[in-house]
Amino acid sequence: MLRYTLKRLASLVVSLAIASLVIFFVIEIAPGDPASLMLGINAQPDTLAALRAELGLDAPKWQRYLEWVGGMLVGDFGTSYQYRTPVAEMIADRLWVSLPLALYALTLSTLIAFPAGIYAAARRGRPGDVAVMGATQLGVAVPNFWFAMMLVLIFAINLRWFSAGGFVGWDKGLFAGLWSLTLPAIALALPQAAILARVMRSALLDVLDEDYMRTARAKGLTAGQALWRHGLRNALIPVLTILGLQFAFLLAGGIIIEQVFYLPGLGRLIFQSISARDLIVVESVTMLLVFAVIVVNFAVDLAYAAVDPRLRQRT
Amino acid sequence: MTRNLILGATLSSLVVLAALLSFVWTPFDHASLNIPAKLMPPNATNWLGTDQIGRDILSMVMVGARTSIAVAFVAVGIGIGLGVPLGLWAAAKKGGWTDEIIMRGNDLIFAFPSLVIAILITAIFGAGAINAIIAIGIFNIPVFARVTRGGALSLWEREFILAARVAGKGKAHISIEHVLPNIANLLIVQATIQFSLGILAEAALSYVGLGAQPPTPSWGRMLADAQTLVSLAPHMALVPGCAIIITVLGLNLLGDGLRDWFDPKLRVARV
Amino acid sequence: MTLLSIRQLGLSIGQKSILRDVSFDIGPGQIVAITGESGSGKSMTAFSIMGLLPKTAAAAGQILLNGIDVLSLPEAEMCNLRGDEIGMVFQEPMTALNPVHTIGRQVAETIRLHRSVTRAEANQIAAKTLERVGLPPDQFPPGRYPHELSGGQRQRVVIAMAIACQPRLLIADEPTTALDVTTQAKIIDLLRQLVREDGMGLLMITHDLALVAGLADRVVVMRTGEVIEQNSTTELLSNMRHPYTRMLFEASTHTVNLPAANTTRPLLEVQNVKRTYALPRTHLFAAARTFEAVRGVSFAIREGERLGLVGESGCGKSTLTRAILGLDAVKGGSILLNGEPVFSDGKPNLDVRRKMQVVFQDPYGSFNPRHTVSRLVTEPFHLLEDPPKGTDRKVIVAEILTAVGLSPGDANKYPHQFSGGQRQRIAIARALIIRPKLVIFDEAVSALDVSVRAQILDLIADLCRQYGLTYLFISHDLHVVRTVTDRVLVMQAGQIVEQGDTEKVLSDPQHSYTRALIDAAPRMPDLDAYRKDAAQ
To answer: What crossing angle do the helices spanning A87-122 and A232-261 adopt, rounded to 10°?
Structure first.
């Protein structure tokens, strides 16, 4: 188990290193010099040079890369070109919206998808299965931002149960905070739940064809008991993969949903920074998201090993 | 389940036909304004109503279908064109360093949240249909590479491939003659799935203003326009939304139907 | 009183009739074997008794277990019977166990389902049952996972699960088919012992007639869903009434009339060949570990010689075959065909390759399903510098198809239009079309039913007469090797432990491993002796 963990950890570090290189150089080749953008087209060459020096833009590329990465390792994400405040602080504020939203949506998605997928698999081919599958087929096809607009139209504008947008802030209390994230979380979660339910069902159906399910029935387990005791844990392996990918998607998918609900999250930060050419913020937020994805994948790999004893020994 | 196949093929061809028809005929010119008739709900003149500056929504949705289809189609083409050869190559060199590099590269692309990178690419290199295609296409590459490699690897274990090797055929030759035709079904099914995801991604990008630029109509931007007026003119959001849903639903049903028709055990990646 | 009595059992799935009018009895402590070729319905009979049929299946007739018709029992009561009154052992031990649960837990589960005992008591009984089937806790703790055990050991776990509640009836569906011959013998001994100790009835499903003859009290012969003949084993062996039964027994002891070998100079020379595989490292900074699959093997095949290679799975025979075919590079030693290396400068040598062809085991996997027979059998033409074209090509294809017992008209058909035996003929045609000097038969008859196997063996003997073949015949089946080879190599753990004239090695083995192999293989009794006994 330790060997497996170490190996995964090594691959995590390598992935992060390569990802940071890619992001850094994509931003580097981006057209538009932040200094001239900040000062406008009429700026004097010497003021421009002074600003470039102040922002650290005149150093060689590799040095700036190392400083950026080194800074991030100790929690220093640099200083925003636009606001002249530490990027870390800007991110931290926004993270308190985006992260709870992603977790909220993930919880909803799991709570809906698992029972739906298990139910459909247990009733393969029967009306219950057809109904669930039809609903998920529709769920997969719905764009989440459009779904969000419809939720606003129905529940905020017509029924007035929720406010149409904005975030009240956590200082108004946990419930008020969660309440204002509920519509966005549903908008994010339902299409994802549709995908997850389909994966859960097909993973279970694959497992149902396995020889050991027949062995389980030969012991005297009912079909339901066999599914519950022997099928579920084996089916969890592909489901975990999707769950890991979904967290990443929810964190990033929030970007669009935040636009619909005017939520002050990472998504709005990234859009504002792109239009202001505040590239250091764009760079750091992207890196943070990639970091989150890679760490979640690492956690999924560890979860595999917890589920499947074969992985604890091999590789 | 040929029901899926029929329904999927019907819905998908409906959308494609509407897009093709828009080249020769639309009820109105999709770009012509008619301010007095703005925000009209569906009626006898404008069958699906008008938008905030009086453009005919049916015409816009028809022309918008062209954009969606073109972007998703080319993006799938990029995925197949680069991903399939990479996957075949990786499978032929299984366990070697080429395989390792290709697969690690794939994992790396998967590690980037696709939407964020698409936004980044289009934002930095400029909004527009071409950059949207590239941004979506890049993420199709690892999907096709992975599916191709998976399908190809199981074939490489088969004895008919060994027989071809004993007949002195090289790995490239075998990949094209024996492997590719036998994973074609798998790739067709995967292509329909990626096509539908491409439609959704294009809609999302143009919704945030990073897809096709005006005057080219696109479903995503129609939804962005509709957002502030949704309580006043819900049809502005409903029509393009339903267009997206019908297209994606049709393609997904078509993919499922094809898979069941070819072989229900095909291993398709679905994320 | 009979334990199990099957009366006019019929079964159909959709429109397809699977079983018709199947009737037989099993008494307590009795071993009944159902035998027959693939498609005979023998496994479906077993699943009917267990009530584990596909949902679309419709059964008719009666299956009386202690006088109760299990076909009419509701599912809940069937669940109580399964595992308690009836236990079942399956063919594939590698996949029959849940990979994520420990073996102890899986055995204890059966007990907790049917006995009101605490978890601790169930674990205790499970440990005892595992010990009974030959997995003592000090060597195989119940906390082990299935992947930590070999195939034979896993089959013991499956048996432990089946007998944990001491059922009255045990059903074993080809329990040893997936196992090596030495393991097979031990599992059969175990089953026999358990039946004797517990007084269980055993329903044994197997295609292996030698096994039937040595184990069963009573034999039921099935073909395409019907019982052809049934009788006590001694009666049946001495007096087979149905021609199909006679054909089956004759085919399984079939010997071919191989022309005398006319051997000349050495053709293939394998000298001190080694092949290793990398194993995963034990920890991140450990030295790389390797597994030696082939450890210094040397032998030669002379032109005109028919050489056999026998050994159990994992002995390195597949690795050796791949090396000879030039599919993989070797780690050490040399492989020469006609004095030239099959692998030179890291690349297979095409000049050498065209002198060598292969016939594989799996008649279903060895053809690209999308190609016609003509295209399939001419694939080796790729090796020729100037392959025949047009009419010449057609003539050659027609000729070779005729030679293997197919018709020239088959050239435009696709592989799925042929039966397993016919496909193996196509595979032989493909191997012979460029008239190679050496043919390698890699378990080429192992996947075939006995009657088809006998025909393919006859074909090989025929082709020897026509073309004077030289071949390497790889098989785990000693009986087959005995009839189609002149000389034999016995391989164990990557080394050749014994070689010599086939007849001599198999009748007077020198090495202990060869002896173990021969002793473990179920032997067909001398039918003539039975007949004489019966006549007297």
So the answer is: 130
Q: What percent of chain A clears pLDDT 70, i.e. is strictly above it?
A: 96
**What is residue C479's three-state secondary structure?**
helix
Q: Which two tokens stand for residue C385?
A: 């510098």
Report the predicted TM-score, pTM, of the whole model to 2 decimal places.
0.85
HEC assignment per residue over B126-173? CCCHHHHHHHHHHHHHHHHHHHHHHHHHHHHCCHHHHHHHHCCCCHHH
Please tell me the distance from the alpha carbon of residue C277 to that of residue B45, in angstroms, as a whole number. Answer: 76
DSSP C299: E
Backbone φ and ψ for B215, nearest 5 degrees, come out as -85, 0
pLDDT in tens, C138-161: 999 999 999 999 999 999 999 999
**ipTM here:** 0.87
Instruction: Pull the structure tokens for residue C93.
Output: 């031990």
Q: Which of C441, C445, C518 is nearest to C474 (CA)?
A: C441
Which one of C360, C370, C381 has the shortest CB-CB distance to B182? C370
CB B178 to CB C367 under 8 A? no
| Structure token pair of residue B46 | 């404008």
Residues of chain A with a CB closer than 8 angstroms to some CB in chain C = 2-3, 6-7, 10, 210-212, 214-222, 229-230, 233-234, 307-310, 313-315
- Please tell me chain B's helix, strand, coil percentages from 3-state DSSP, rounded to the nearest 5: 75, 0, 25
Q: Do C264 and C303 contact (CB within 8 A), yes or no?
A: yes
Q: How far apart are CA A36 and CA A32, in angstroms?
A: 8
Determine the Cα–Cα distance for residues C279 and C36; give it in Å rounded to an integer. 42
pLDDT digits (tens, 9 = 90+) for A193-207: 999 999 999 899 989
pLDDT per position as a tens digit, C225-243? 999 999 999 999 999 999 9
Given an 8 Å threshold on Cβ–Cβ distance, is A289 in contact with B252?
no
| CB within 8 Å of B124: residues ≥ 6 apart | A26, A27, A30, A31, A274
Distance of CA A261 to the CA centre of its chain: 18
Nearest CA in chain A to B223: A146
A 140-159 → B contacts, CB under 8 A: 140-143, 145-146, 149-150, 152-153, 157-158
Contacting residues for B104 by C-beta, under 8 A, at least 6 apart: none
Q: Would you place residue C345 in the very low, low, confident or very high pLDDT band (cuts 50, 70, 90)?
A: low
Alpha carbons B247 and A146: distance in angstroms, whole number: 14
Distance of CA A46 to the CA centre of its chain: 43
Q: How confident is the model at residue C281 (pLDDT cuts 50, 70, 90)?
A: low
**All residues at 6 or more sequence positions from C261 whose CB lies less than 8 Å from its CB, including other chains:** C304, C305, C306, C486
**How far does Cα C377 stand from its chain's mean position?**
26
Chain C residues in contact with B181 (beta carbon < 8 A): 368, 370
d(CA A221, CA B222): 55
Q: Pick the closest to residue C170 from C375, C336, C309, C3 (CA basis).
A: C3
Q: Bridge partners of A86?
A: A79
**Beta-strand pair C4-13/C16-26:** antiparallel
Mutate to test the interface with C, among A3, A214, A215 (most CBs of C within 10 A): A215
Given its phi and psi angles, is residue B49 left (phi above 0), alpha (psi -120 to 50 degrees) or beta? left
